[in-house]
Design a protein that fits this description.
CATH class of the largest domain: Mainly Alpha
CATH topology of the largest domain: Arc Repressor Mutant, subunit A
Structural class: alpha+beta
Helix content: 40-55%
Shape: globular
Low-confidence stretches: 1-12
Number of strands: 11
Radius of gyration: 24 Å
Strand order of the largest sheet: 6-5-4-3-7
Number of helices: 12
Distance between the termini: 55 Å
Largest sheet: 5 strands, antiparallel
Strand content: 15-25%
Mean pLDDT: 80
Order of helices and strands: HHHHEEHHHHEEEEEHEHEEHEH
């Protein structure tokens, strides 16, 4: 694997398996640059769940395609040196992490446009040519639907109001009241991406409380001349409390939830930080015990149901009964002709 292989890689088109491999190679570079002499080949094989032969090919691309002086001693792989990046007061690993993060932002619904494309181009220009081919394989074309464009315009306007600390007048469609539309004046506190949507956390002068507004339900927004200040004691984590995801709990009490995941599902669950209270334990047979202290909300129930027969609810009993009932209803519904 050498420069010729990279040329073939560039001309072959962005197939899913190539995108996956590109991400793996760049993550390998990032790991070795950030933690020199920590990783051996077997560590990388286990981390990426690939064969030793495939790992050897990836390392050859790093050596001969990306032209990085990869070395190895008894402690693990390291780079003899990494490229100098002019105009950036960042280390190589930091700059690479930043570029990958900016590239991945193109996949976040609502981000994109010429500004992001310009930022990516500027970052790419600072890297050796060998990297640009691989980094571009990670870029996914942004959707151009009218819904996407409207969301992007709204996010830009909300961000501007938040940065300038200026109030907003909005027309908001409330889902819980049959789509009732109301006019409100709000003070943006935070703008948060969640799954395929965005949430605006803001003080609502009408309700005299800090509320959460789904950005896609903001029909119109106008930046006002009047300014505001976010209270010094406002803390987003404290505001969310023990919530799972972005659905704040109501009067539900915090409970200890214990789930038992089958090995395959458990491995993926254990890799993510789902909640600040979670505890993960891998058992001898490969299954995973997952503990978390939260109010049991509909959003959490949906998360558990996503894993279907790959997860068993051990505690609390009422959650197990609700999950059983929901699966039973789904089975009956899908059996109907």
């Amino acid at each position: 694997m050498c420069a010729q292989s990279l040329d073939q890689f560039e001309n072959s088109g962005a197939k899913p398996e190539e995108i996956k491999r590109t991400a793996r190679i760049l993550e390998t570079v990032l790991l070795i640059a950030t933690f020199p002499k920590k990783y051996h080949r077997k560590d990388l094989v286990e981390r990426f769940e690939i064969s030793p032969r495939m790992m050897d090919k990836d390392l050859e691309i790093i050596r001969h395609g990306l032209k990085l002086p990869l070395r190895k001693d008894r402690n693990g792989y390291y780079f003899e040196r990494t490229p100098e990046l002019p105009m950036l007061r960042l280390g190589f690993a930091e700059a690479l992490a930043l570029l990958i993060a900016v590239q991945s932002a193109k996949g976040v619904s609502g981000l994109g446009g010429p500004e992001l494309a310009s930022a990516i181009a500027r970052l790419e220009s600072l890297f050796p040519d060998e990297y640009v081919v691989m980094l571009r394989q990670l870029a996914k074309p942004a959707p151009l639907s009218s819904h996407y464009q409207q969301r992007q315009k709204m996010l830009t306007l909300l961000t501007k109001a938040h940065i300038e600390k200026r109030k907003l007048r909005i027309l908001y469609e409330t889902a819980s009241r049959n789509g009732e539309i109301s006019e409100r004046v709000v003070c943006p506190y935070a703008l948060v991406p969640y799954v395929r949507s965005w949430q605006l956390v803001a003080y609502c002068e009408k309700r005299r409380d800090v509320l959460m507004f789904k950005v896609d339900r903001i029909l119109e927004a106008t930046i006002l001349d009047s300014s505001y200040e976010i209270p010094a004691d406002f803390d987003f984590d404290r505001y969310m409390g023990n919530a799972w995801g972005m659905m704040r709990a109501g009067e539900e009490a915090v409970e200890e939830v214990i789930l038992l995941f089958e090995p395959n599902a458990g491995r993926w669950v254990a890799e993510e930080q789902w909640h600040k209270s979670q505890q993960v334990e891998q058992l001898a047979d490969g299954s995973v015990l997952f503990r978390v202290r939260i109010p049991v909300t509909p959003e959490f129930m949906n998360w558990v149901m996503y894993y279907g027969a790959k997860v068993k609810v051990l505690q609390p009993q009422h959650l197990r009964e609700k999950i059983v009932e929901e699966h039973r209803r789904a089975a009956l519904l899908n059996q109907e002709e």
